[in-house]
Amino acid sequence: MRPSNRLFTLFTVLVAVFLMIPSISLADDFQRRINVNGTGEVQVAPDIAILRLGAISRSENLERATMEINEIMQNVMNVAESFSIEPSRLKTDQMNISTMFQHRRDGDPTQVDYYEVRQMIEVTFVDLDMDRVQSFLYRAVEQGANQVLGLNYALSDLQQYRNEARQLAMQNAINRANSLIEETEMHLGNPISIEEYESYQRHNYWGGTSDAYTSQVVMTHDSGNGPDPGTSSAGMITVKSQIRVSFELVE
Fold this sequence. Notes:
Layout: H1 3-31, E1 33-44, E2 48-59, H2 62-82, E3 90-92, E4 96-103, E5 109-126, H3 130-142, E6 147-154, H4 158-180, E7 187-199, E8 201-203, E9 209-211, E10 214-215, E11 237-250
Antiparallel strand pairs: 1-11, 2-5, 2-6, 3-5, 4-5, 7-11, 8-9, 10-11
Helix pairs in contact: 2-3
């Protein structure tokens, strides 16, 4: 065999061996790992309440409807001031104006029927006191707020409880992995990879949910005489962490 052919054959063998090494290593690693899920939950009483109120005014005169909304919003902000709520805890939405038309039988608009003006204000309460929130709500409704758009709860130190939930989730994953290999000759090694899937829900007082926190809230209404603040209970917020861990298995 000529030297050039020998070199080519040797090169081919070396390349084949080199390509086989990673695949053998990966296969060996795959056989010596275990994947498990872990869940951790922490229930905490909320210390923040976020109340959203609104007002609607309808009139054939746009200026009159706008002035009425401005007056209601100012009255609600005056109520907030009387409750010593800082201006930074108040947030008003843009005013929304809709024109309502009279329609002929064929559906085409003929002339303006009335104007509808809406505006929303969001009030954040810290150091949660439900009696204070309810009293504010009553006062705001008395001053013209005719929509209760939402009452949600939150935590001022969410990160602390997230970390607690993560620790519980990791311990849960370790316990599951040890339980699965208990009857084998393998032992749990170091984690190879960790993935986290956090989940929070927040229930508002009429029973809907939004992605954030979990809190049980109950509120009553009297539909006969407009919005009734009723009674409210903040319940508990559930902070939940879900993880997926891949552990090394050792003999």
